[in-house]
Amino acid sequence: MTFATLPDATYFSDNRQFKLEITFEKIAMFTQRPTYTFSDTISNTTLWSFCPDLKGIRTDWESLVLVPVNATISDEGWTLVSTYHCAGSSVIGFSPEGEMLFQHNLDKHLERENGYKGCTNHRGVMSLGKALIYFTNLNKKRVVCIRTWWRTICIIEMETGNFIDGSLSDAVLSYERELIS
């Protein structure tokens, strides 16, 4: 049996001021731990670093290390890391200062909200990379919008980690149209 190592990855904000580097450390036969290093490319300084705790790795499937598959960074430094593991697609939100603000299993959220069953055959929300993810302001709050490939939208307030009612998505549609045109 061969153990495939996960590739390191680098992501930038649109203005290229902020950079998130994700590196992997092999810690057991089938386990790698990601380390997130966030830096300012203008001042060439590391602003924060994050390495998840591995408690419960053998017994609690919900606390397994989430494998990062993508990251989106706002021009102000807000960061959303899209992850995947056997319990589905999740997102982790970070403040510009590196505080982990929330961790949500999107498959479970969408299943509760509208009956979506995403975890079948490893086809979670983020696993195919077909979600449109962007940051914007909504009612004077910094939010991240996740538009799934089947057009459902999840809106998460960054500071609180709370989901915002999707019916407010009309307020962000014009921004979305501008983004994809």
Structural features, described:
This protein has 181 residues and is mostly beta strands. 11% of the residues lie in helices and 44% in strands. It has 2 helices and 12 strands; from the N terminus they run ββββββββαββββα. The strands form 3 sheets. The protein has a 4-stranded antiparallel beta sheet, with no helix packed on it. Strands 5-6-7-8 form a 4-stranded antiparallel beta sheet. The chain is globular.
Summarize the structure in short:
This protein is mainly β. The protein has helices spanning 106-114, 170-180; strands at 9-12, 18-28, 31-40, 45-50, 67-73, 79-85, 88-94, 100-105, 132-138, 141-147, 153-157, 163-164. The strands form 3 sheets. A 4-stranded antiparallel sheet has the order 1-2-3-4, with no helix packed on it.
Element layout with pairings:
Elements: E1 9-12, E2 18-28, E3 31-40, E4 45-50, E5 67-73, E6 79-85, E7 88-94, E8 100-105, H1 106-114, E9 132-138, E10 141-147, E11 153-157, E12 163-164, H2 170-180
Antiparallel strand pairs: 1-2, 2-3, 3-4, 5-6, 6-7, 7-8, 9-10, 10-11, 11-12
